[in-house]
Protein backbone atom coordinates (compact mmCIF):
# COMPACT_ATOMS: atom_id res chain seq x y z
CA UNK A 1 0.00 0.00 0.00
CA UNK A 2 1.30 3.46 -0.83
CA UNK A 3 1.74 6.03 1.90
CA UNK A 4 -1.68 7.10 3.18
CA UNK A 5 -1.41 10.86 2.84
CA UNK A 6 -4.10 13.44 3.17
CA UNK A 7 -5.76 15.78 5.63
CA UNK A 8 -6.08 13.42 8.56
CA UNK A 9 -4.80 15.70 11.32
CA UNK A 10 -7.97 17.66 11.82
CA UNK A 11 -8.16 20.63 14.16
CA UNK A 12 -9.03 18.82 17.35
CA UNK A 13 -6.52 18.28 20.10
CA UNK A 14 -5.24 14.92 21.21
CA UNK A 15 -7.86 12.37 22.18
CA UNK A 16 -7.59 10.19 25.26
CA UNK A 17 -6.68 7.29 22.99
CA UNK A 18 -3.88 9.37 21.44
CA UNK A 19 -2.50 10.24 24.87
CA UNK A 20 -2.52 6.61 25.99
CA UNK A 21 -0.85 5.52 22.76
CA UNK A 22 1.86 8.18 23.07
CA UNK A 23 2.53 7.15 26.68
CA UNK A 24 2.86 3.50 25.64
CA UNK A 25 5.17 4.40 22.74
CA UNK A 26 7.35 6.53 24.99
CA UNK A 27 7.64 3.77 27.58
CA UNK A 28 8.43 1.00 25.10
CA UNK A 29 10.91 3.13 23.17
CA UNK A 30 12.51 4.36 26.38
CA UNK A 31 13.37 0.75 27.17
CA UNK A 32 14.54 0.25 23.58
CA UNK A 33 16.81 3.28 23.87
CA UNK A 34 18.26 1.87 27.09
CA UNK A 35 18.91 -1.44 25.30
CA UNK A 36 20.73 0.47 22.56
CA UNK A 37 22.98 2.00 25.21
CA UNK A 38 23.97 -1.53 26.24
CA UNK A 39 24.54 -2.45 22.59
CA UNK A 40 26.64 0.69 22.19
CA UNK A 41 29.06 -0.49 24.88
CA UNK A 42 29.42 -3.90 23.25
CA UNK A 43 29.88 -2.37 19.81
CA UNK A 44 32.58 -0.04 21.13
CA UNK A 45 34.60 -3.04 22.25
CA UNK A 46 34.00 -4.88 18.98
CA UNK A 47 35.14 -1.89 16.89
CA UNK A 48 38.46 -1.66 18.72
CA UNK A 49 40.37 1.51 17.78
CA UNK A 50 37.30 2.81 15.97
CA UNK A 51 35.08 2.34 19.02
CA UNK A 52 34.46 6.07 19.39
CA UNK A 53 32.36 5.87 16.23
CA UNK A 54 30.05 3.18 17.62
CA UNK A 55 27.48 5.68 18.87
CA UNK A 56 27.07 7.04 15.35
CA UNK A 57 26.36 3.60 13.92
CA UNK A 58 23.39 3.33 16.30
CA UNK A 59 22.43 7.01 16.36
CA UNK A 60 19.26 6.68 14.31
CA UNK A 61 17.81 4.11 16.67
CA UNK A 62 17.70 6.71 19.44
CA UNK A 63 15.51 9.01 17.32
CA UNK A 64 12.88 6.67 15.86
CA UNK A 65 10.21 7.72 18.36
CA UNK A 66 9.57 11.12 16.79
CA UNK A 67 8.78 10.08 13.20
CA UNK A 68 6.90 6.99 14.40
CA UNK A 69 4.63 8.97 16.73
CA UNK A 70 4.12 11.67 14.10
CA UNK A 71 3.21 9.08 11.46
CA UNK A 72 0.62 7.46 13.70
CA UNK A 73 -1.01 10.46 15.41
CA UNK A 74 -0.38 13.24 12.84
CA UNK A 75 -0.60 16.17 15.24
CA UNK A 76 1.95 18.95 15.81
CA UNK A 77 4.66 18.40 18.44
CA UNK A 78 3.79 14.76 19.23
CA UNK A 79 7.17 13.61 17.92
CA UNK A 80 9.03 16.00 20.21
CA UNK A 81 6.86 15.08 23.19
CA UNK A 82 7.38 11.33 22.73
CA UNK A 83 11.15 11.75 22.36
CA UNK A 84 11.28 13.74 25.60
CA UNK A 85 9.08 11.20 27.40
CA UNK A 86 11.22 8.31 26.17
CA UNK A 87 14.28 10.16 27.48
CA UNK A 88 12.45 10.68 30.78
CA UNK A 89 11.85 6.93 31.04
CA UNK A 90 15.56 6.33 30.47
CA UNK A 91 16.62 8.87 33.10
CA UNK A 92 14.09 8.20 35.86
CA UNK A 93 13.37 4.49 35.57
CA UNK A 94 16.50 3.11 33.91
CA UNK A 95 19.15 5.37 35.46
CA UNK A 96 20.68 6.51 32.19
CA UNK A 97 24.29 7.63 32.75
CA UNK A 98 23.63 10.72 30.62
CA UNK A 99 21.31 12.11 33.30
CA UNK A 100 18.84 14.99 32.89
CA UNK A 101 20.78 16.32 29.88
CA UNK A 102 19.08 13.49 27.99
CA UNK A 103 15.81 15.45 28.12
CA UNK A 104 17.41 18.28 26.15
CA UNK A 105 18.88 15.76 23.72
CA UNK A 106 15.42 14.28 23.24
CA UNK A 107 13.97 17.70 22.52
CA UNK A 108 16.62 18.61 19.94
CA UNK A 109 16.54 15.26 18.16
CA UNK A 110 12.74 15.10 18.26
CA UNK A 111 12.48 18.58 16.76
CA UNK A 112 14.91 17.65 14.02
CA UNK A 113 13.03 14.47 13.14
CA UNK A 114 9.60 16.13 13.18
CA UNK A 115 10.57 19.18 11.12
CA UNK A 116 10.00 17.67 7.63
CA UNK A 117 6.48 16.57 8.61
CA UNK A 118 5.73 20.04 9.94
CA UNK A 119 6.89 21.56 6.65
CA UNK A 120 4.22 19.49 4.87
CA UNK A 121 1.68 20.65 7.48
CA UNK A 122 1.44 17.00 8.57
CA UNK A 123 -0.19 16.02 5.27
CA UNK A 124 2.53 13.99 3.52
CA UNK A 125 3.86 10.63 4.69
CA UNK A 126 5.62 9.19 1.66
CA UNK A 127 9.00 7.51 1.87
CA UNK A 128 10.74 10.72 0.84
CA UNK A 129 9.43 12.56 3.88
CA UNK A 130 10.77 9.83 6.14
CA UNK A 131 14.18 10.05 4.46
CA UNK A 132 14.08 13.82 5.03
CA UNK A 133 13.15 13.17 8.66
CA UNK A 134 16.24 11.01 9.09
CA UNK A 135 18.47 13.62 7.44
CA UNK A 136 17.02 16.43 9.55
CA UNK A 137 17.38 14.39 12.74
CA UNK A 138 21.00 13.60 11.85
CA UNK A 139 21.76 17.29 11.32
CA UNK A 140 20.25 18.17 14.70
CA UNK A 141 22.15 15.36 16.41
CA UNK A 142 25.52 16.25 14.84
CA UNK A 143 25.05 19.95 15.57
CA UNK A 144 24.34 19.25 19.23
CA UNK A 145 27.26 16.83 19.47
CA UNK A 146 29.60 19.33 17.85
CA UNK A 147 28.58 21.96 20.41
CA UNK A 148 28.70 19.64 23.44
CA UNK A 149 31.80 17.62 22.61
CA UNK A 150 33.78 19.80 20.20
CA UNK A 151 33.65 17.28 17.34
CA UNK A 152 34.76 19.87 14.80
CA UNK A 153 38.18 19.97 16.44
CA UNK A 154 38.46 16.19 16.74
CA UNK A 155 39.50 13.42 14.38
CA UNK A 156 36.91 11.44 12.45
CA UNK A 157 34.44 14.34 12.10
CA UNK A 158 33.54 13.39 8.52
CA UNK A 159 33.03 9.79 9.64
CA UNK A 160 30.80 10.96 12.49
CA UNK A 161 28.64 12.93 10.08
CA UNK A 162 28.45 10.17 7.47
CA UNK A 163 27.65 7.37 9.90
CA UNK A 164 25.05 9.45 11.73
CA UNK A 165 23.41 10.38 8.44
CA UNK A 166 23.18 6.80 7.19
CA UNK A 167 22.04 5.48 10.57
CA UNK A 168 19.40 8.19 10.92
CA UNK A 169 17.93 7.62 7.47
CA UNK A 170 17.73 3.86 8.05
CA UNK A 171 16.99 3.50 11.79
CA UNK A 172 15.08 6.74 12.38
CA UNK A 173 13.30 7.69 9.17
CA UNK A 174 12.69 4.53 7.16
CA UNK A 175 12.36 2.22 10.16
CA UNK A 176 9.63 4.47 11.60
CA UNK A 177 7.58 4.04 8.42
CA UNK A 178 8.12 0.26 8.42
CA UNK A 179 7.17 -0.05 12.11
CA UNK A 180 4.11 2.15 11.70
CA UNK A 181 2.83 0.13 8.75
CA UNK A 182 3.53 -3.16 10.53
CA UNK A 183 1.59 -2.03 13.60
CA UNK A 184 -1.26 -0.74 11.45
CA UNK A 185 -1.61 -4.10 9.72
CA UNK A 186 -2.30 -5.75 13.08
CA UNK A 187 -5.35 -3.53 13.61
CA UNK A 188 -4.13 -1.97 16.87
CA UNK A 189 -3.98 1.47 15.23
CA UNK A 190 -7.43 1.41 13.65
CA UNK A 191 -8.64 4.31 15.80
CA UNK A 192 -5.64 6.52 15.06
CA UNK A 193 -5.09 9.01 12.25
CA UNK A 194 -2.89 6.45 10.50
CA UNK A 195 -5.58 3.79 10.73
CA UNK A 196 -8.22 6.13 9.34
CA UNK A 197 -5.92 7.20 6.51
CA UNK A 198 -5.23 3.59 5.55
CA UNK A 199 -8.94 2.79 5.45
CA UNK A 200 -9.58 5.84 3.29
CA UNK A 201 -6.76 4.86 0.93
CA UNK A 202 -8.12 1.31 0.63
CA UNK A 203 -11.64 2.47 -0.15
CA UNK A 204 -12.44 1.96 -3.86
CA UNK A 205 -12.76 5.13 -5.87
CA UNK A 206 -16.32 5.95 -6.95
CA UNK A 207 -17.04 4.97 -10.52
CA UNK A 208 -18.54 7.61 -12.82
CA UNK A 209 -22.07 6.87 -14.00
CA UNK A 210 -22.48 5.83 -17.59
CA UNK A 211 -23.53 8.73 -19.72
CA UNK A 212 -27.00 8.53 -21.22
CA UNK A 213 -27.19 9.68 -24.79
CA UNK A 214 -30.33 11.64 -25.55
CA UNK A 215 -31.50 11.47 -29.15
UniProtKB/TrEMBL annotation:
It comes from Cellulomonas gelida. The chain crosses the membrane at residues 19-41, 53-72, 77-95, 101-120, 127-151, 157-176. This is Thiamine ABC transporter permease. InterPro entries: ABC_thiamin-permease_prd. Pfam families: ABC_cobalt. It comes from the Bacteria. Keywords: Membrane, Transmembrane, Transmembrane helix. The lineage of its organism: Bacteria, Bacillati, Actinomycetota, Actinomycetes, Micrococcales. The keyword Transmembrane helix applies.
Amino acid sequence: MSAPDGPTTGRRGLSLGDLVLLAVLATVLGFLYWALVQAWGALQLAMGPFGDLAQHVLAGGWMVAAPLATYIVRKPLVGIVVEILAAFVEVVFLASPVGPMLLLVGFVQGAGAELPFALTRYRRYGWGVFVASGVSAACASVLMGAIRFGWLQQDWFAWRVGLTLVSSVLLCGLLARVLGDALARTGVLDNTALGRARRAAARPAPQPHDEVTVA
